[in-house]
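Journal club side-thread
Mid-discussion, someone asked how the predicted structure for our own chain would compare to the paper's figures. Pasting it here so we can look after the session.
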Amino acid sequence: DSAFSACDNVIPAYKKPQGGPMPPAREFFNTCLARPRVRSEHCIGILKGRFPYLKNIHVLIDGPKSMKRIIRFGNVCAILHNLLLKHDIPEDWVDEEFLDVD
């Protein structure tokens, strides 16, 4: 991603040379670099679809404690999502009145 520059923790993708094609080895590197990013973005999108609160978290991160709280909330969402994939939601958990949107 061109938004990032190289440092100890970041390996940016190669940019296409001006006026020429991208060498195959660099194109392959960029593809390998993009795959995990795309997968993680898809996972985040799935979680945001299931837990809309994740789309708009309004918490001021002002230190380690608030950061841990946000990370814990994300972890809880991932755990609940995985549990719901493996098990049906018990009927007594569903409020039919809430689901009726007429």
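Post-session note: Helices lie at 24-50, 64-86, 96-99.
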